[in-house]
Design brief:
The chain is of the alpha/beta class and 238 residues long. The protein contains 11 helices and 9 strands. The chain has a 6-stranded mixed beta sheet with strand order 1-2-3-5-7-9, sandwiched between helices. It is globular and about 50 Å long. It catalyses: a (3E)-enoyl-CoA = a 4-saturated (2E)-enoyl-CoA; a (3Z)-enoyl-CoA = a 4-saturated (2E)-enoyl-CoA.
Length: 238
């Protein structure tokens, strides 16, 4: 599952255990609860750092659970449940009143890739782990909000093509060159350490979280429209 811990100005959202961190309905609900808690406890200077234990950051939706339904139609129905349940997690990250940093210490595939990409900053381990959108290889279409997120977050048309239409597996340095990842680091520990340093730098700015969230949402209006994260005009707080 996941845990949320606050240390000073930083919230640490951690996917726990040594499995693949498949985004089951239970894990999705746990993530959403943690993000709601972080939002409710946010103050000026708060920052969220998300990471995971083990070899995987997240290997996407729990396809095993979907396939265990038996028939193809039942499997599709279960997959649709996970797709619908995960959309509010993306919306919550876009609406969170604080900067967000993903410290990706291992493999991030499909919805796991999107989970990391939904943060403001995306740091990755270079010595192990890949980013991979597996849908084209699995014969699955992209949900509308997946496509909207990749359009919003990856500026290069050729990079989006390679990720979404070729199913390219990207290591840390490659992802940096393509402008997907902020920086790549030599180990899981150094990736998290770099995320903490960045988080501490951002926390010092003591930004108004509500204003920060609205500016973020204004950067990605189409994505916010698809996931239901409405852009509002907050009142200034002195």
């Amino acid at each position: 599952m996941c845990t949320l811990e606050k240390r000073g100005d930083l919230f640490f959202l951690t996917l726990t255990g040594d499995d693949e961190h498949r985004l089951s309905l239970t894990l999705i609900d746990s993530l959403l609860s943690a993000l709601c808690q972080a939002k409710s406890e946010a103050t000026r200077g708060s920052v969220l750092v998300t990471t995971a234990h083990g070899k995987f950051f997240s290997n996407g939706f729990d396809l095993g659970w979907a396939q265990a339904a038996g028939s193809a139609s039942a499997a599709r129905a279960r997959l649709s449940q996970m797709v619908a349940a995960f959309k509010p997690v993306v919306a919550a990250l876009l609406s969170l009143p604080m900067p967000t940093v993903a410290a990706v210490q291992g493999h991030a595939a499909a919805a796991g890739f999107l989970l990391a990409l939904s943060h403001d900053y995306f740091l990755m381990r270079r010595d192990r782990g890949v980013l991979y959108m597996s849908e084209v290889d699995l014969g699955l279409p992209f949900p509308d909000y997946f496509t909207a997120a990749f359009l919003a977050k990856i500026g290069s048309v050729s990079s989006r093509r390679d990720v979404m239409l070729r199913g390219m597996k990207l290591k840390g340095d490659e992802a940096v060159k393509l402008g997907i990842v902020e920086s790549a680091h030599d180990s899981a520990e150094s990736t998290v350490e770099a995320a903490v340093r960045l988080g501490e730098q951002l926390a010092k700015r003591k930004w108004n979280g509500d204003v920060y969230a609205e500016i973020r949402k204004s950067l990605y209006p189409e994505l916010c429209g698809v996931v239901g994260a409405a852009v509002a005009t907050p009142k200034a707080k002195l």
